[in-house]
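A sample copied in:

***
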Amino acid sequence: MEIRSTTDEDLDVFVDTLHAAFGRFPETPAEGGGGVWWAALEMDRGLLALTGDGRPVGTAGAYSFELTLPGEILVPAAGVSAVGVLPSHRRQGVLSAMMRHQLAELRARGELLSVLLASEAPIYGRFGYGPATYTRRLTVPRRQAALALPRARGTAGAPATGPDTGSVELLRRAECGEILEEVYDRYRRAQPGALSRPHRWWALRAGQPPISPTPRYVAVHRDADGVPNGYASYSIGEPDTLTVDETIATDDAASTALARFVLGHDLVTQVVFKHVPPEHPLRWQFADFRAGQVSGDTDWLWVRLLDVPRALTTRGWFTDGELVLDVDDPFLGEHGRYLLTVRDGKADCVPTDREPDLSLDVSDLGSVYLGGTAPSTLVRAGHIRAHRPGAATLADALFRADRPPHCLHWF
């Protein structure tokens, strides 16, 4: 079997092989080649697995993104996608060979981590990826959709969040592409776990709504100065359900105003928010706390560290402390023990022969890296081994983020 890099000339073969791996048939691209999810594929980052006689049997690709780390730090991240093996060649080592080849290429590019969305949860842990952000669906019956006024008070008795002095404008998706791109980019730069959406994705209409050309209504929120600072992309389908693809807002006032807008829509019986962070405040804003019915609680972004010391010294930190981490990477046959020292928001990470505080797999380090998974949870689950009392508690404090990580982007 041969694994080789792809070029633009391989696009049709790559797309056909990938669709065959999932038992699907490709859509017809719109005029100009856009409007399909694979329009933004970077063929200089793709891989083809070929049999001895040159037949393609597997694919793997990667997108060039930026990932926001705790502390509003932006780093390049490889977004692994388009991974598939023909049913006739599964369980023959094709996927493992492609993953090993790809990780070597990513390291050669100098990338410190890679990310993916896992089609099946058991697959990618063995390649060193760990679930790092989570999302859920929130369904709200219209009859229970009333939002309560804020009770918390700030200085001088004023509501802590303050009234919304902005406005909401209803537009069609085709009318507001530049607004969506600009607002999303401002949002993702401050949100840990968020990925960039490169301009070419918007230009080629690649991906899922609201990037794709699928018809959508968009509620755009503007602040008191008329500057767009949030949007909600939605559609209405049977049975009388308004479904929000995503709500993007740069502050809580805009988020609340957009929620109030969609929840107040006439002629629907329920509103479904497809991607809500686990700690989103919306449920606490309902007059009836039970109004928001949670479902589809699932993992979203998986993280794989390619350079442990570099990754740990790049993200922001919010508690001082010192830990010795014993990190095993069985897929790549690597093992390292590192002294992590955090002072004044900066970390130093160097090899050490000191006794470890925590022993963990590189996939578990990926899970805790963005602050969305507490190390103590993985200790209790038997994934991480704590070698001394208090080590897990200190790790929780060290790895916490400035705000819970969340990722909306599909790729």
